[in-house]
Structure prediction request, 225 residues.
Amino acid sequence: QQQVKQSPQSLIVQKGGISIINCAYENTAFDYFPWYQQFPGKGPALLIAIRPDVSEKKEGRFTISFNKSAKQFSLHIMDSQPGDSATYFCASSSLGNQGGKLIFGQGTELSVKP
Amino acid sequence: EAQVTQNPRYLITVTGKKLTVTCSQNMNHEYMSWYRQDPGLGLRQIYYSMNVEVTDKGDVPEGYKVSRKEKRNFPLILESPSPNQTSLYFCASSFNGGRAFFGQGTRLTVV
Prediction:
């Protein structure tokens, strides 16, 4: 009930291509779905997040697509750049009485080749 | 500058020797958490706190203790470290359980 499954584990994309990372959650009480970006030697940093009342959110080259009925959400990175090479984590939480309990996916190591 | 500060950044210790990793945030956040990061397993929550003197177990609490006596500090205590606690540890804080700000991490090796 609490798992968040992320795929793929690693991804290699050419510069200018589209990177797509997928996540699936189980707990229907989750109402907050963030993506975090982590560079080597650094802590994760929030990239973009979505609430379940919308199906898509776009910020620059980064888009979250959300499918509530399928309990899935994905991160799309358009025009991928070598500087996007990092590890990406999806996460889910319920901002209600369990606020603060973020459940993370396993992570995706993205490498963008020049 | 808004930040979460962890110390130390690197630590090598021996089995059974008690240690404390400190965490401090300057954003007046109510929520604070500890995670461990292991290859292929992502970030797993150890403990979290929703306010001073309010803490709860995360997914992997065994072998760890925490305390929240002040709003800004949330230390992680390993009373008797074992080699399976070798990992990369992150402290995080957030205002309402939403956007989390992470520290730089503490790489712990237990030999």
